[in-house]
Design brief:
Length: 655
């Protein structure tokens, strides 16, 4: 992902050509070209737009351990009935370097109560009838008689859930209580109130819904995780792009600080905190409650291959461009080797033992790893080759992903390809954030790529950006998704070269985003798939096992008469699967001639995704652009109508 806005955005202009006569398309189902890689269509996760804290990670308390630059950001003092007290933030760096701060609360509340409230991430999403689990670490040598109340509030500060907590003791230990919400609030709050006289120290003040993904305590937000599972992704790339690099090396992503007990993980400021001045989010930090263990676990849960990306000793070149000296690179390389041990090592190894202690005795079966993100020039190649030698020597079966830089062509791109062609890199990661017309014009980009021995392509980040008025960002219009669908037919047609692809970014909170377009938008209670989401879903859920030719007059469809197409067969399900994109403003009549197999009598189907090219899905109107399925009469000759501005996925059973 580019760290600065960089492109001239454009709208998708539909062709104004007249209605076409019936177009003859031939599908040679018995002439497979190449296998479809099982990891072909995946997802790219980066903690941008509040994707982790405030998003997929279901924690409702912001700044739960008082580690933000402003220690009480997100918190407010609460006094009731003229009772009083005061709050001190204590730093114990010498004792706990990972989580040094805690709040010391002095309470003088014999009649009412005194304490804190937390605003959550643009509020807290609370649902009537749902259980919420509160926990905190506390130390109360002078507060054993204090009584606490945990209160949920709605937008009008009315209580919608309450539970009592007491029995505080000397020495740090966890305290927990559950409560059930009696109302719903999209922007709720949490209060922690104390009655009595004394003092108590607090840390890791936390509130989670009981309803999390797979019902794991303190886990992931269930609806967002389910939307990822519904994509049926072949891989999950994490923890992102630019966030891996950091604005400087001190702010880089370090996986070892994101595993182990949550209270022992080291919070850092999120690099998207101040990246865009017009979308500044000073309260954007990374608690790492969603860390590398949780990423591996999510990948396993949804049947996707994990693809971690690691820092290669270089900070973001759009920011500081800081690099580690070559004679100090060893710890970065060791992090990569240790990560493989963490993912795959026996439980008797150092890092395998940590994985087992976290609840996963068996391996995560890591086979892919990326070294660097969007890096370029000789300083990247010099460092990449050190990683490559170390990893391939110890773990020769690990496939490595290397960088083609941030641009889709040019001297930087050409230099990296020249250097990496002779390397042992397995994939080169190409990125394209471009106007829709670029995607239409590049649907045949990989038709003539070098198929000799060398790296394959990982289309690691792409999205069509459409200009709207004076806005510096673009929205997820159907026009942008349609252009991506046309381009994706070219990726699928060339699956022998392009073996992985993922749209980016993945998530965005409607009130806390820095970058758009994004695949899935959400607030504190709801989520919506964009038109682009449904394009990704249609391709991934209808992948097939082998690519076969679909031709018009002996040529591939990559824009002729505004049509784009790819075809696969699913050998196990015995289906021919066609993906046909019509980007014109007119319906097109198509004759599909199936060769090499005999169509079965069972029903064929056509899934259609179409709308006005400026249409978007919103939280209030999530169904404006969604697929509609219609039956077809199976046969070796099918008449198909391709609606204006449409993606059509056609499945034909065969004997």
């Amino acid at each position: 992902m580019f760290c600065k806005k960089f492109l001239v955005l454009a709208t998708l202009a539909l062709s104004s050509t007249p209605t076409f006569a019936q177009t003859q398309l031939t599908v040679q189902a018995n002439k497979p070209i190449t296998n479809v890689p099982p990891n072909m269509w995946g997802i790219f996760f980066e903690d941008i737009n509040f994707a982790a804290d405030g998003g997929l990670y279901a924690e409702l308390v912001k700044n739960r351990s008082f580690e933000f630059f402003t220690p009480l950001m997100g918190w407010k003092e609460v006094k009731q009935n003229k009772d009083t007290g005061h709050i001190l933030i204590v730093n114990r760096t010498a004792v706990n370097t990972a989580n040094p701060r805690y709040a010391a609360i002095m309470v003088d509340a014999p009649n009412g109560s005194y304490g804190l409230s937390n605003e959550g991430f643009r509020g807290m999403g609370i649902t009537k009838g749902q259980q919420y689990n509160f926990s905190m670490w506390a130390n109360a040598p002078a507060g054993t008689g204090l009584q606490a109340r945990v209160v949920l509030l709605d937008e009008k500060d009315q209580p919608i859930g309450e539970a009592a907590l007491s029995g505080f003791h000397d020495g740090w230990q966890p305290y927990k209580v559950s409560l059930t919400a009696t109302g719903t609030a999209a922007k709720g709050k949490l209060q922690l109130l104390f009655k009595g006289q004394g003092s108590i120290d607090l840390d890791m003040v936390s509130l989670f819904p009981a309803n999390t993904w797979k019902n794991r305590p303190n886990g992931l937000r269930a609806d967002l995780a389910q939307m990822l599972a519904d994509l049926k992704p072949g891989f999950i790339r994490f923890p992102g792009g630019c966030i891996v690099e950091g604005r400087d090396l001190a702010n880089r992503y370090q996986w070892k600080k994101t595993v182990g007990k949550p209270e022992e993980r080291t919070l850092i400021v999120n690099r998207w905190n101040t990246e865009f001045s017009h979308r500044s989010t000073p309260d954007y930090f990374q608690s790492f409650g969603l860390g590398f263990f949780e990423y591996f676990q999510l990948a396993e849960d949804i049947g996707a291959a994990p693809l971690p990306i690691l820092n290669c000793g270089m900070a973001c070149q759009f920011n500081t461009g800081e690099v580690v000296a070559m004679n100090e690179l060893d710890p970065y390389v060791q992090d990569a080797l240790d990560l493989i041990e963490f993912a795959n090592g026996d439980a008797n190894t150092k890092w395998g033992a940590l994985r087992a202690a976290m609840g996963h005795p068996g391996p995560f079966h890591l086979t892919l790893m990326g070294v660097g993100n969007e890096q370029w020039d000789p300083q990247y190649i010099e460092r990449y080759k050190i990683f490559e030698q170390a990893i391939k020597s110890k773990y020769p079966d690990i496939k490595l992903v290397s960088s083609a830089g941030p641009f889709s062509k040019g001297p930087m791109f050409d230099y990296l390809w020249k250097e990496l062609k002779s390397s042992r890199a397995d994939f080169i990661d190409e990125h394209y954030y471009m106007p829709p017309q670029w995607f239409l014009s590049n649907a045949s980009r990989y038709d003539n790529y070098d198929r000799k021995k060398g790296p394959k392509i990982f289309a690691g980040e792409y999205a069509a950006h459409t200009k709207e008025g004076t806005e510096p960002e673009s929205r997820n219009t159907w026009g942008s998704a349609l252009a991506e669908a046309a381009f994706m037919t070219g990726l699928e047609r060339n699956a022998d070269v392009v073996q992985m692809a993922s749209y980016a970014p993945l998530f965005a909170h409607v009130e806390a985003w820095q970058w758009r377009p994004d695949l899935i938008w959400f607030d504190n209670l709801r989520a919506v798939g964009t038109p682009n989401y449904y394009v990704q879903k249609l391709f991934s859920a209808n992948k097939g096992t082998q690519v076969v030719p679909i031709l018009q007059n002996g040529a591939v469809l990559a824009g002729k008469d505004s049509l784009y197409a790819s075809a696969t067969i699913d050998a196990a399900a015995k289906q021919v699967i066609l993906k046909i994109v019509n980007v014109s403003a007119h319906a097109q009549s198509l004759q599909i001639n199936l060769q090499g197999v005999q169509a079965a009598k069972g029903a064929a189907r056509q899934q259609v995704l179409t709308a006005n090219t400026l249409a978007i899905n919103t939280l209030d109107d999530p169904g404006k652009v969604v697929p509609v399925t219609q039956p077809l009469t199976a046969g070796n000759h099918l008449a198909i109508n391709a609606a204006p501005a449409s993606l059509n996925v056609i499945a034909i059973p065969y004997k």
